[in-house]
Amino acid sequence: MMSPKPILERVAESTAEVALRTADTQGIGQLVDGALAPVFLIAGIGALLNVLTSRLARVVSRARDLEKQFASLNDDARQRALAELPLLDKRIALTHSAIYCCVASALAIALVVALLFVGAFVEIPLLGTLIAALFVLAMLLIVVGLVYFLRETRISIRSLRVRRELMEDSRSPALSAAAGPRLREAGARTLGPDTGASDRA
């Protein structure tokens, strides 16, 4: 059975070695410089999360408004609401997935920064491989999150296109008839009297 004294000596030697390495301020400065790139990447992910959370809040607010107004809508408006609610639900799910991927990516990058400092002072086998794998995983998570974000944006553009078509179809003939003389008068002013004379000729 191994006596506890050699173990304590090894722990003391390792602690002293780590203390000596951390006392090197120049090495610490170089390590901080090397960790700046992942830190800036975390800041970029934070900006992306801000965009995603704001879009999620707007979509959830729109879905709640439709649910509150559903009972007071007429038949046509109910049909449009029933067609829009599944799109809103899908947008919420896609935005949630994008947020999860971005948060997981930020956590992986934070682990990369922490392991960079640990690896500079403590010799751990295959630590470099673990750091590289975590960084690649963080990049893949960002890619997946952006793909979810792109899908959510496409759905929102498609729903806006449908609303625009509904607005164009719902224009009343009375408004079109009232706007007709004004449009003809504006066209006559634009063409001028010479065009009218040539038409009569």
From TrEMBL:
Keyword Thylakoid part of the UniProt annotation: no
A Pfam cross-reference name: DUF2721
Keyword terms, alphabetized: Coiled coil, Membrane, Transmembrane, Transmembrane helix
Top-level taxonomic group: Bacteria
Coiled-coil intervals, chain numbering: 49-76
Transmembrane segments: 35-52, 98-121, 127-150
Protein name listed in UniProt: DUF2721 domain-containing protein
Chain segments carrying region Disordered: 172-201
